[in-house]
Specification:
about 100 residues, two-stranded antiparallel sheet, 4 helices
């Protein structure tokens, strides 16, 4: 499949991507990731290996788009749930603590 990453055209094949990632240890995932085999790789790490370009030269979305079209499962980290906002009374109650049990 032909795709464009960082203004360069690449002909990517799923089996070739799998082969190029074979033997490469996944870095810790801190953002978007792709499942290749049984491992989760950071998108930027895979993009760097398959394009042989520096990670700063392309965006994650370009690589996600290409790998999704090839049939790989791409994931993004879910945004953390917003912290519960306490009312002034709940805040005061939490600061004072609960009454002693008898």
């Amino acid at each position: 499949m032909r795709c464009v990453i960082a203004r360069f055209s690449f002909d990517l094949v799923k089996s070739e991507v799998q082969e190029s990632m074979k033997g490469i240890k996944p870095e810790p995932v801190t953002g978007a990731s792709v499942i290749i085999g049984r491992r989760a790789y950071p998108i930027k790490q895979v993009g760097e290996v398959i394009t042989k370009q520096d990670r700063r030269d392309f965006s994650s979305s370009e690589v996600i788009r290409a790998l999704t079209r090839l049939g790989f499962t791409c994931r993004t980290l879910p945004e953390p749930a917003p912290a519960a906002v306490l009312t002034p009374i709940e805040t005061a109650s939490a600061l004072l603590g609960s009454p002693a049990q008898m």
